[in-house]
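Work package 3, deliverable 3.1, input record:
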Amino acid sequence: MYEFRLYVVGRTPKSVRIVEELARLLEDVLDGHYNLEVIDVIKNPELAQKDKIVATPALERVSPQPIIRVVGDLSDKESVLAALGLSAR
Amino acid sequence: MITAKGQAKRILIADDEPGVIMILGMRLRANGYQVIAAHDGMQAIELAHREKPDLIVLDIRMPDKDGYAVFEELRASANTRSTPVIFFSALPPEQAEEKAAQLGADGFVSKSADPEEIVARIRGILTRLENKMELTGIRQ
């Protein structure tokens, strides 16, 4: 099972779109075999500090190890998948 | 970080992503810096002139005026020419580092980097600058 953590700022149209698009992408590729935890850094700034996040949006593949982090533009699906060690089906 | 006059050093963060300003701002404040925020390139130039920060952390990809254009405008003005600038971006480091060096910026830090790295980089630049000013003062 893959575990992902996505850090966004607030519940804005942009952050909602990022979450929706990412969930769709992961669903396409992993067919439900994943968990996606969304962390709003406004509500959980300490968590962002603890996880050493300095910019958003930031996506982490928490499991399997090693942890992989993708920061910034998540709209390029192929680049995101490649960075996460996944491939499109 | 505190200046010789006992004031906190002032860092201008220019980034269109509110998360960067919030999280990086928190980290810099926790390290004793005062933070000024600009949400786009135009505001960055305006605040650089008006607030005269000790250092600017400048995002590269911003709408309207990107970080490179902002940097060139800052360097073209006598008022802001000597303000240290660190580029801060999610662009591939090898590409952005080379461009930052070509332009004559004071450094580049990736948005994927450990937050302590950017704080250390800022501290290093400000300390170097302060030492240089002290030396210049001694010579005068």
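DSSP finds five helices and five strands in chain B.
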